[in-house]
């Protein structure tokens, strides 16, 4: 008991200091925007930059953007500016504009800017991944007669110049959203809670923790990371066909999953195990309340696996991939 | 009796074809009415004069001209016998079949009409549906391809994923469709969409063109995830042409260690 109380004290102290420190040393700005047509789904795009991002759905139709920055000249304005409000400048934290029911937020590339945004529940959120595509206006719609997408061509040209598609750093936390969410980030964890829309999330170095409240419609989804676990909680009544691919790790689930294919991709010499797995899966739905895939690395040639299974008879495809990490497919409420 | 009715009856009266009662009435009226009497007299005069015109008898010249004409007709008939004969024979033959009585004619017409309707129905319901179903199927797959192509160009990654998922259901995708998928694999800004394309292309990997494109794509992919997916697929289909690219990937110092490991295993499997 004593130890417990001590723990609480320490936690409180740490919390007090960290919050007070961060509050004391950050410059905060608040910006309120609106979607032009609130009856239609608005899109919030965060195009670039570094720093944590929090987006929370709320019961309202304004988009409230709070920025926190630790840039020196913002924190310590000159004495002459006393009693005045900063309206512009080189240390400008964000640039935001609304067009076609889409609010685009661009962060300064030099400085870390934290974003805390409140949006209407049904907003679609796109973080990164589209930066190069943005350079050509309406690129998505421009298709030549041969079916070649001009925007994608431009993207490929930019890609060949080694300009990355998503420039991002920092943790991304999103909650209470019914719209679709697309995230591409380089470094940082992606945490999505209480989500009812479709999700496409990719991180290079970071964990994915996604909890769905419910899933409306047969939306295909995909989650991938190179270095980190993927931990997904799906509604218990979801109808989905899940494909999970590990390279170094394993896949676990507590769903009753009918495995349709689970053959080790790489090594045919160890067909013993491939056969075992397909035997376990091809038949009737089975409780696979254990390791789904992944084999000890000491077995000859065994290295990573792909497993495909149907939940509640199957449905839209959900593709999960991690190179260095485990995959957890949890049964929600 | 009025003068008008009397006058209308004068010709019959003169020729004596009127019934006795009317004839008596006309006779009585003429004796009283001067105008009518004069009309009867004038008409009687024309009548009697017409009677005086002699009846023309055909003379010798006419007779000989007639036989000449007949002879000429016979000669003409002999000169063009076949043409006329065939038509006539056909006509005669048809006439034999065609019943004389209108009741039977009507019956035959109705029977032919019913037969025509029956054949028409057979054409539409017998062979028709098969054609329509295949046509519908073709249209459906065409529609599906169009929808897929349009989805692949959408700004939303979820829409593009939907396009990739739909393309898996196309049984015989055409060149345009496959090149759209390859294009997405090479240029889509979203890693997850590119991964989905690799999984979708697996079922089309028996095409030589697709295999070559997969090898070429592996040379240019920057994302380690996409690299691993492509290596695994190329290893699965045992694409010999991928060996050189796999070697380049292994030798490249910038390649991530897990990708190198994967490439080595891939090479082992292909060999």
What does this structure look like?
The complex is a heterodimer of chains A (333) and B (271). With 333 residues, chain A is of the alpha/beta class. Chain A has two domains: 28-130 and 166-235, no CATH class; 238-323, no CATH class. Chain A is 16% helix and 43% strand. Chain A is built from five helices and 24 strands. In chain A, the strands form two sheets. In chain A, strands 2, 5, 6, 8, 9, 11, 13, 15, 17, 19, 20, 22 and 23 form a 13-stranded mixed β-sheet that branches. An eleven-stranded mixed β-sheet of chain A has the order 1-4-7-3-10-12-14-16-24-18-21, with no helix packed on it. In chain A, β5 and β6 (102-107) form a beta hairpin. The longest helix of chain A is centred in the N-terminal third of the chain and has 23 residues, at 2-24. The radius of gyration of chain A is 23 Å and the shape is globular. Mean pLDDT of chain A is 74; it is low at 20-24, 131-167 and 263-303. By secondary structure, chain B is an all-alpha fold. Among the domains of chain B are: 3-50, no CATH class; 170-270. Chain B is 80% helix and 0% strand. Chain B is rod-shaped.
Produce a short descriptive summary.
The complex is a heterodimer of chains A (333) and B (271). With 333 residues, chain A is an alpha/beta fold.
Oligomer: heterodimer
The global form of chain B is: rod-shaped
Counting structural domains of chain A, the number is 2
Profile the largest sheet of chain A.
13 strands, mixed
Separation, N- and C-terminal Cα atoms of chain A: 33 Å
SSE layout and pairings?
The complex is a heterodimer of chains A (about 325) and B (about 270).
Chain A: H1 2-24, E1 27-34, E2 43-50, E3 53-58, E4 62-69, H2 72-75, E5 94-99, E6 102-107, E7 113-120, E8 124-127, H3 131-134, H4 150-160, E9 167-169, E10 172-177, E11 181-187, E12 190-195, E13 199-205, E14 208-212, E15 221-227, E16 230-234, E17 240-246, E18 251-253, E19 256-261, H5 271-282, E20 286-287, E21 291-293, E22 305-311, E23 316-324, E24 327-331
Parallel strand pairs in A: 2-6, 2-8, 2-9, 3-7, 3-10, 8-11, 10-12, 11-13, 12-14, 13-15, 14-16, 15-23, 16-24, 17-23, 18-24
Antiparallel strand pairs in A: 1-4, 4-7, 5-6, 17-22, 18-21, 19-20, 19-22
Chain B: H1 3-15, H2 20-32, H3 34-52, H4 60-79, H5 81-97, H6 102-152, H7 157-167, H8 175-187, H9 191-201, H10 208-220, H11 224-236, H12 242-251, H13 257-270
């Amino acid at each position: 008991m004593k130890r417990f109380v001590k723990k609480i004290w320490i936690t409180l102290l740490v919390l007090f200091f960290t919050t007070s420190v961060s509050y004391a040393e950050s410059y905060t700005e608040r910006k309120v925007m609106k979607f032009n047509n609130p009856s239609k789904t608005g899109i919030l795009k965060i195009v670039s930059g570094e720093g944590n991002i929090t987006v929370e759905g709320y019961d309202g139709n304004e988009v409230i953007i709070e920025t926190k920055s630790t840039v020196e000249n913002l924190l310590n304005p000159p004495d002459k500016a006393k009693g005045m409000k900063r309206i512009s400048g080189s240390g400008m934290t964000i640039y935001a504009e609304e067009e076609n029911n889409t609010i685009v937020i661009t962060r300064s590339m030099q400085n870390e800017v934290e974003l805390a945004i409140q949006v209407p529940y049904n907003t679609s959120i796109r973080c990164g991944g589209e930066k190069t595509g943005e350079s050509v206006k309406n690129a998505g719609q421009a298709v030549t007669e041969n079916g070649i997408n001009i925007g994608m061509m431009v993207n490929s040209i930019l890609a060949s110049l080694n300009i990355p598609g998503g420039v991002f750093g920092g943790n991304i936390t999103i909650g209470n959203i019914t719209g679709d969410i697309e995230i591409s980030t380089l470094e940082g964890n992606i945490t999505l809670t209480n989500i009812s829309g479709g999700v496409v999330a990719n991180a290079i170095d970071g964990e994915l923790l996604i909890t769905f409240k419910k899933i409306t419609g047969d939306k295909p989804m995909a989650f991938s990371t190179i270095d980190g676990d993927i931990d997904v909680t799906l509604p218990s009544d979801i109808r989905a066909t899940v494909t999970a691919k590990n390279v170094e790790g394993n896949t676990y689930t507590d769903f009753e999953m009918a495995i349709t294919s689970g053959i080790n991709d790489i090594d045919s010499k160890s067909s013993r195990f491939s056969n075992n797995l397909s035997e376990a899966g091809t038949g009737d739905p089975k409780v696979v309340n254990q390791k789904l895939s992944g084999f000890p690395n000491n077995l000859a040639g065994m290295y990573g696996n792909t497993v495909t299974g149907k939940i509640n008879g199957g449905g839209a495809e959900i593709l999960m991939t991690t190179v260095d990490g485990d995959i957890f497919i949890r049964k929600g409420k | 009796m009025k003068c008008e009715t009397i006058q209308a009856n004068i010709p019959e009266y003169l020729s004596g074809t009127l019934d006795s009662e009317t004839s008596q009435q006309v006779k009585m009226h003429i004796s009283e009415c001067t105008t009518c009497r004069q009309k009867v007299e004038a008409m009687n005069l024309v009548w009697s004069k017409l009677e005086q015109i002699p009846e023309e008898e055909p003379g010798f010249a006419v007779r000989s001209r007639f036989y000449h004409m007949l002879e000429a007709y016979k000669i003409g008939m002999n000169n063009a016998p076949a043409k006329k004969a065939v038509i006539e024979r056909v006509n005669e033959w048809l006439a034999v079949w065609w019943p004389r009585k209108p009741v039977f004619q009507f019956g035959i017409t109705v029977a032919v009409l019913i037969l025509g309707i029956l054949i028409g129905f057979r054409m539409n319901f017998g062979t028709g549906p098969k054609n329509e179903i295949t046509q519908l199927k073709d249209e459906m797959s065409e529609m599906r391809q169009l929808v897929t192509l349009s989805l692949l160009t959408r700004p939303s990654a979820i829409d593009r994923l939907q396009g990739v998922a739909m393309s898996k259901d196309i049984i015989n995708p055409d060149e345009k469709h496959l090149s759209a998928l390859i294009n997405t694999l090479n240029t889509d800004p979203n890693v997850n969409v590119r991964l989905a394309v690799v999984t979708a292309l697996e079922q089309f990997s028996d095409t030589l063109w697709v295999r070559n494109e997969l090898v070429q794509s592996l040379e240019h992919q920057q994302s380690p995830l996409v690299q691993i997916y492509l290596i695994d697929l190329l290893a699965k289909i045992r694409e010999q042409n991928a060996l050189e690219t796999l070697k380049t990937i292994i030798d490249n110092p910038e390649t991530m260690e897990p990708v190198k490991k994967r490439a080595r295993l891939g090479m082992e499997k292909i060999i």
